[in-house]
Amino acid sequence: MRKAFAFALFAVLFSAGQIAYAHCDTLDGPVIKAARQALETGNVDLVLVWIQPKDEAEIRSAFAKTLEVRKQGDAAKELADMYFFETLVRVHRAGEGFPYTGLKPAGQDFGPAVRAADEAVASGKLEGVHTLMTQTLHEGILHRFHKVLETKDYKPDDVAAGREFVEAYVVFLHYVEGAYETLSKGGHLGAASEEETHKPQCGE
Known about the structure:
By secondary structure, this protein is an all-alpha fold. The chain has 8 helices and no strands. It has 2 domains: about 1-15 and about 125-204; about 25-105.
C-alpha cells in the first residue's frame, strides 16, 4: 500500500512537471513571447535567459541569421521567425532534460495550476496560487479523513469492515505523510537544489 501510494504521488508530480514544461512549447508561452520581443527589438539578451550558458553561441548564431533573413520581406520574415522559435524551444527543452516535440498552438489550457502561477507572476500577487493549493490539499485530506471516520466504528467480529477501516486509515495516513514530505523537502514542489537553480525552467 505504501509503495503504491508513493508511486501514485510520483506519477502525479511527474505529469504535473510535464505539463509545466510543455507550457514552454506553445506559441503564446513565455519562451516564444521572449523570442518575439527579442526579434522586434534586436536584443538577443531577452532570450538568452531561457537557455544554459553552453548553448549561448548556438542561439546567438540563429538570432543573427534570423534578423538577416527577416529583411527579405514578409514571407521570409515569417519563415525566419518560425526557424528561430523552433531552435530556441528545442535548445531550451534540451537544457531542461526534455525532448523537443514541436511547437504547440496558442490558446491551450494547461490547467488551473499553470494559469494561477502565470497570473501570479504577471500581477505580483500570490493569493490565487495560495488559494488553489490550499483548497486542493484541504479537499484531498478531508475526503480521505471522512472515509476513516465512516469506517472506524466497526464491530470487533466484523473482519471485512475492519479491513475497510484499515485501508482507509492507511490511505489517509500516507496521503498526509506524502504531501508533507513532498511540500517540505523534495521534488519540483520543494526547494530547488543548487544544480536546479542554474537551469532556466518553465511553469514552476
